[in-house]
Amino acid sequence: MTYIDNMIRITNEITLEFEKNIIKKKINYNNINTEKLLILSNEMIHDSSIYQKNIILKFSTLIYCIAKMIKEQKNKKSNNLETIFCKYYNNLKLMYTYLKKNNINKFENKIVEIFNLILKNNNKFNIYIQDIINSTTIKKGSKLVDHGISIETVSKMTGLNQWELYNYLGKTNFEIVLDEKIQKTQKRLDHAKKIFNIK
Fold first, then answer.
1. Which stretches of the chain score pLDDT less than 70?
2. What distance in Å separates the CA atoms of residue 107 and residue 102, rounded to the nearest whole number?
3. Which helix (H) or strand (E) holds 27?
4. pTM above 0.90, yes or no
5. Degrees (nearest 5) of the Cα angle 157, 188, 168?
6. 158 Cα distance to chain centroid
7. Whole-number pLDDT of residue 178
């Protein structure tokens, strides 16, 4: 079985998990088996360490974020949440279709689209990312993290634009280590401020 075959299987399993909890066109997210989703995410994390494919890492991160969001929102009644989870479900169905047709670009675009939804609707996004990064498999396998958490790393994991991420996350809740180019620019700016006595 190739990693694509595995992604097809896992996307289908997640979609079916959502489908069996649809009641009157609304998703009853309280009954979604989040432990199952987390197990599927771990499978993908394992695959990412074997195949070293960034798309697998993005996908595993996405599954993890969705599972954690659902787990934390259980027993909280909200029409807004139902709408958001319906959007996830509809996008997951499309992702499955794209994978079956071997349209990896469209599959990847959908991952980014869902991450944008998560980013805009959940203030714990950075914590989910940190959890994934702290995974031994990712640290040893894909070697994405050297010192702290970089915006560049999160960008690789999600497909989201680095500047967009920085605007959303800022420096709240966890330390962000900027990528080298931004670090150098910041150092030059700090140096110039010292020379001209600018605060």
1. 24, 75, 77-79, 133-151, 153-154, 157, 164-199
2. 9
3. strand 26-27
4. no
5. 35
6. 5
7. 45
- Those residues whose C-beta lies under 8 Å from the C-beta of residue 67, and which sit 6 or more positions away, are 34, 37, 38, 41
* Residue keyed to tokens 């020379």: 195
Angle at 18 between CA 16 and CA 22, to 5 degrees: 110
- 74-83, long-range: CB within 8 Å, 24+ apart, which pairs? 74/29, 74/30, 74/34, 75/30, 81/29, 82/26, 82/27, 82/29
Q: What residue has token string 């989910």?
A: 128
The confidence score (pLDDT) of residue 82 equals 76
Determine the pLDDT at residue 184: 56
Q: 158 is written with which tokens?
A: 């999600």
Q: For the chain, give every domain's residue range.
A: 3-145
Tokens of 36: 């199952």
